[in-house]
Amino acid sequence: MKLGLLGVGVPFGVMYFIEMTKHSVQHYDFVLVVVLSISVFELLTRTETFLQKHPVGYSLIEKISEISFAIYMMHVYVCGAIVKGVEKFILKHPITQFLSWQADVFFYLVFILLSVFFIGCLAKIMARNRIVKKYLFLMK
After folding, report:
1. Looking at residue 110, what is its pLDDT?
2. Checking phi first, is residue 134 left (phi over 0); if not, alpha (psi -120 to 50) or beta?
3. Strands, E assignment, 15-60
4. Phi and psi at residue 79, in whole multiples of 5°?
5. What is the rounded distance in angstroms from the CA atom of residue 11 to the CA atom of residue 24?
6. Contacts of 138 (CB under 8 A, 6+ apart)
7. Are 43 and 8 in contact (CB under 8 A)?
8. Measured between alpha carbons, how far is 134 from 139 in angstroms, rounded to an integer?
9. Can you give the pLDDT at residue 3?
10. Is 24 in contact with 45 (CB distance < 8 Å)?
């Protein structure tokens, strides 16, 4: 519980607050991004036995882990395309101007889920090529 709060909740909250002040923390060398990444990895490692008892959650984590390198390779492009598409076709202003911080966090989580879904679809399509699958996405 402490790892979830101190390792994920606090860094995410601080990063969110910094983003709301119109400064960016979207850099991989930012210390809280590193702390957040390590904490999520540790949470998944420590809860593995719990997740094994729940087949739906465990199978979802397994599916995501199969394409984790593909997610890493393509997330900048896919997330950028989603943001540009939303800006061009849906919203002309940032969504945070109109909603509360709770709604903003909700939409951010939806954005992450949509990104993983689209990248998963692209990875499955592109992985039909054995060379791409083996050497670009590092999939078995």
Report:
1. 86
2. alpha
3. none
4. -65, -40
5. 14
6. 69
7. yes
8. 5
9. 65
10. no
- List CB contacts of 85: < 8 A, sequence separation 6 or more: none
CB 125 within 8 A of CB 36: no
CA dist 75 and 83 (Å) reads: 12
How far is residue 116's CA from residue 1's CA, in Å, rounded to a whole number? Answer: 25
123 vs 119: CA distance, rounded Å: 6
Return the amino acid letter for 129: N
Q: What is the pLDDT at residue 92? A: 63
Secondary structure of residue 27 in the 3-state scheme:
coil
| Residue ranges, the chain, pLDDT below 70 | 1-7, 26, 28, 91-98
Contact predicate 56/109, CB 8 Å = no
Structural tokens at position 61: 């984590």
Q: Give the chain's count of helices (H) and strands (E).
A: 8, 0
Query: Which residue is it, tokens 């399509």?
Result: 125
Angle, CA 114 vertex, CA 109 and CA 99 arms, to 5° = 40
CA pair distance 13, 19, nearest whole angstrom: 10
